[in-house]
Write a structure and sequence with these properties.
The complex is a heterodimer.
Chain A lengths: L2 E8 L2 E8 L4 H8 L18 E4 L2 E4 L12 E3 L12 H8 L9 H14 L5 H7 L11 H21 L1
Parallel strand pairs in A: 1-5
Antiparallel strand pairs in A: 1-2, 3-4, 3-5
Helix pairs in contact in A: 2-5
Chain B lengths: L2 E5 L6 H6 L3 E3 L5 H6 L5 E5 L8 E4 L2 E5 L4 H6 L7 H5 L4 H6 L2 H4 L8 H8 L3 E5 L4 E5 H6 L1 H4 L3 E8 L6 E6 L10 E6 L2 E2 L2 E2 L3 E5 L6 E2 L1 H7 L6 H9 L15 H17 L1
Parallel strand pairs in B: 1-3, 2-3
Antiparallel strand pairs in B: 4-5, 5-8, 6-7, 6-8, 9-10, 10-13, 11-12, 13-14
The chains are: A alpha+beta, B alpha+beta.
Protein name (chain A): (2Fe-2S)-binding protein
Protein name (chain B): FAD binding domain-containing protein
Chain lengths: 163, 266
């Protein structure tokens, strides 16, 4: 296997990695960097469990070649909040019982973050669309949608106070 | 399995790499899925450095670079008529990755954007290694397996007049899933009569196809329930849908007329 050097930003830190040519970002994150927040599900872009944020947009890390992340800004679940703290989305998922087995949760939260970064006051339909590429087999989606709407509300509040 | 990745410096160099067994990787949503499921060794070539991610709208003509993503289409206010098409493809992550050039080669039941381009009478520009060539999308799609070894550069078409472009993708799981039937149609009217109707079907054959018999049933007529019903009866006349995990061929034929009639009546 040939290895190539890839420099990218991972969770706000500069990262230099040697990755196998043709290997995926998912494999780099889990197998090389030990970041298990990103889940390996279907490996064909159907389930959304491997969703990460690249340059502000949701991407499927199972379908992204690690080499193509050169110079990109990658955010995984581990980068959402400082160690020991929770991002408002994580808090809302916990408070609203929006996780059961938890396998889809990282992808759901990152897909939701992309939505809220772009659209802080989404409608329910916009939330449904934002997580439409993420499959959950436990919750029936309703608690997840509710948690994202709750988190959006919480994230908007400080901005209003400042205004 | 051994995979190598290189970035093409010029479109004209891509066909030579493909002639030796290489493959273009655009968004990667199809090819990396294949690799994950054990596809053979392959030399992948990206078009990332060719500046093919531009959208140009000039004098009613739309030109989309082959590497324009579904998300970029869905964000562009000048392309409002295409938003329902882009939004019907995958979830947001797929849309951020999948390209319109790649969609031309997506196997049925995928390829909804290609069906829309077919209804829009698009022209495909591609480099064959010697020169840039152009082909009408219908010819291109019919020969797409052979043409895959070239390098698609851009897709262009005339923006449809307001209200003339219609689109529906019928799916099992809302909001998004693979197509059971996709219908894209441009139905222009002149002096109250239909002139130059183009209807394209996705997931109804190995690639997107025109429904010419239904088009003929509309041509020169005034759009009304009886004419829509007559065209709907012919909508799947030239189709050869497949049985797959999403629907049987029988079901696709059964529902295509219903959704076509609803689309035009709306």
């Amino acid at each position: 296997m040939t290895k190539v050097a890839v420099e990218f930003t991972l969770n706000t830190r500069e990262q230099n990695e040697f990755v196998e040519t043709g290997s995926t970002l998912l494999s780099a994150l889990r197998d090389r960097l030990g970041l298990y927040g990103t889940k390996a599900g279907c490996h064909q872009g159907t389930c959304g469990a491997c969703t990460v944020i690249i340059d502000g947009e949701p991407h499927l890390s199972c379908l992204t070649l690690a080499e193509r992340c050169r110079g990109k800004d990658v955010t995984t679940l581990e980068g959402l909040a400082p160690a020991g703290a929770l991002h408002p989305l994580q808090q809302a998922f916990m408070d609203g019982f929006a996780a059961q087995c938890g396998f889809c949760t990282p992808g759901m939260i990152l897909a939701a973050k992309c939505l809220l970064d772009r659209n802080p006051d989404p409608t329910r339909d916009e939330v449904v669309d934002a997580i439409s590429g993420n499959i959950c087999r436990c919750t029936g989606y309703e608690p997840i949608i509710a948690a994202i709407l709750t988190a959006a509300q919480g994230l908007r509040k400080p901005a209003r106070k400042r205004a | 399995m051994s995979v190598t990745l290189s970035a093409a410096k010029q479109a004209r160099l891509v066909p030579a790499v493909q002639a030796k067994g290489g493959r273009i990787i655009a968004g990667g949503t199809l090819i990396v899925a294949d690799l994950n499921y054990g596809a053979d060794s392959v030399a992948l070539i990206t078009l990332d450095r060719l500046g093919l991610d531009k959208i140009a709208v000039k004098g009613g003509k739309v030109t989309l670079g082959a590497m324009v993503t579904m998300a970029a289409v869905a964000r562009d206010r000048r392309l409002k008529f295409l938003h329902p098409v882009a939004d019907s493809i995958g979830g947001p992550a797929v849309r951020a990755m999948a390209t319109i050039g790649g969609n031309l080669f997506a196997p049925s039941p995928y390829g909804d954007m290609a069906a829309a381009f077919l209804a829009l009478d698009a022209e495909i520009s591609f480099h064959d290694g010697k020169a840039t060539r152009k082909l009408p999308i219908e010819t291109f799609l019919a020969q797409r397996r052979k043409l895959q070894k070239h390098c698609v550069v851009s897709i262009s078409f005339a923006a449809p007049s307001a209200g003339t472009f219609h689109y529906v993708k019928v799916v099992r799981r809302k909001p998004v899933s693979a197509s059971v039937v996709t219908i894209a149609a441009v139905i222009p009217q002149k002096a109250g009569k239909i002139k130059g109707a183009r209807i394209a079907l996705g997931a109804m054959a190995a690639n997107a196809i025109r429904a010419r018999k239904a088009e003929a049933a509309l041509e020169g007529r005034k759009l009304g329930d009886d004419i829509i019903a007559a065209a709907a009866k012919l909508i799947a006349a030239e189709a050869s849908p497949a049985d797959d995990a999403y629907a049987t061929a029988w079901y696709r034929r059964e529902i295509a007329p219903v959704h076509f009639a609803r689309l035009l009546a709306a």
